[in-house]
Structure formats: C-alpha cells, structure tokens
Amino acid sequence: xxxxxxxxxGEALDLFTDRVHAVRADQWGASTPCAEWSVRDLVNHxxxxxxxxPPLVSEGxxxxxxGDAFDGDVLGDDPVAAWDRAAAAARAAFAERGATDRTVRxxxxxxxxxxxxxxxxxxxxxxxxxxxxxIGVNERLPGPLVDYALAEVEPYADSLSQSGxxxxxxxxxxxxxxxxxxLAMLGRAM
Length: 190
What we know:
Elements: H1 4-22, H2 39-58, H3 63-66, H4 79-95, E1 103-106, E2 109-112, H5 113-135, H6 143-153, H7 157-160, H8 178-185
Antiparallel strand pairs: 1-2
Helix pairs in contact: 1-4, 1-5, 2-4, 2-5, 5-6, 6-8
C-alpha cells in the first residue's frame, strides 16, 4: 500500500534531483533567490539536510550526537553524485517500517518522523524553485507538490521569518495561483 507522504517525499526528491542533474559546469557559482547562496551553496544545503535523515530517523541519534558531521562542504568534487547518494539514503530512511511514527529529536524538540518528512518535502519543493531560477530552467512546480507544500506551511508561515532563516512573507498578487502564494509566504517573488 502506498503512503501519500512517502509518495510526496519521493516526488520532491525526484524533482530536485532533476534540477541538480540540469546544472551545467559553469552554473555552480550562479546566484539564487536565497540571499548569499550560490547554486552550489543551495545544493550543498539540501544535500546536508538529506544527510541528517539516516542518523536521526534510522539510528535514533540526537542532533548533538551527530554534531558538526554535516557542516561545511558535503559535495566534494562531484556535487551531483553527492546529492544522489544523500537523497537515496534519506528516501530509504523514511521508507523504513515505522519511520514516520518514530520520534525524531530536532533542534526545536521531539517531532514525529512524519512531520519531519513533511517539512523535508516543503524544503525540497521550495528549493527546487530556487535552483530552477538560479540555473534558468522551467520554474513551474507540479501542482500536487505545490498544494502539499502550501498545506504544510500555511499553519506556521507567519512565524518563519522570526527564525531568521526565511525572508518576511510577501503579499501575493490578487488572484495568485497556488505556486505564487506558496513562494510569497516564504518571501519569494515570482
């Protein structure tokens, strides 16, 4: 039986993977909508996020136990291969029996594995748009993933800019579609 959350997670990883594989050699230093992040920095960020999943979900380790293992450059000489390995490991960890019901200890406290996975879907979807813009490819995101990400972020979107990790939300234009509303909530203008 398919799990809709794991399906969305896999689709989000596949989407970001598609964009990572589209990065040309001369684009790794290109800017992105994420302030101060190049294409390489953005891919490095999302790769590091995937690397956290196995120790937290599969091994039950705390962030303190993992420490600074994923700080700095995790891409090495082959960013595409590094992303592919990290994405595959995260996908496998969330797909383990009972993984979404486990308690994961994140920086803000104990969280159900399913909630962590949903946040990872949101992160991958939004950063796919960032990467798409950075490398100049189609920025249109699949509707089901946008709808999922929008439903995930709406309950806490107003508090995100207070974390210092997100820009302040923008007012979407009248009649904005779901993708425009999602991006505006996260401080991004289409």
